[in-house]
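S.,

Sequence below, as promised.
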Amino acid sequence: MPYRVVTVAGSHQSGFRLQVEPDLPIKALAAPVADTDVPVRGDTLLLLFPDGRHRRAILADFALEAWRDGSTYYCRSSPDNPEFTLVIGTDRAPQDLPPGTEIRLDDTAPTGGARTNGWSQIIARFETLS
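The prediction came back faster than expected:
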């Protein structure tokens, strides 16, 4: 059964993609699901719009928002409570993803977290940074 990832508060255009707001605290997202239910690039998302419509979209990215300045790396979230940014691959504009839209991971063809080794290992890596 598809599980809820986030309810959209807003979004903004990033190339041919929509970056979803808010960012997602991964510990809270991981708690109610199986360790291997990690959204990864290419997964299918279900978009449930406030007016009752729905459609599918492709997960373009789901990761820590970070950048490099010279040899130093920076990120917006704390290693104590890391937050990932969800990005949807689409040619649509932010007004096509209204606040209140629920995004779910469509697990009818799950990746099984095969490329991540599961939530527990992702969280453990961040805890070593604290």
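DSSP finds two helices and ten strands in the chain.

Coffee later?
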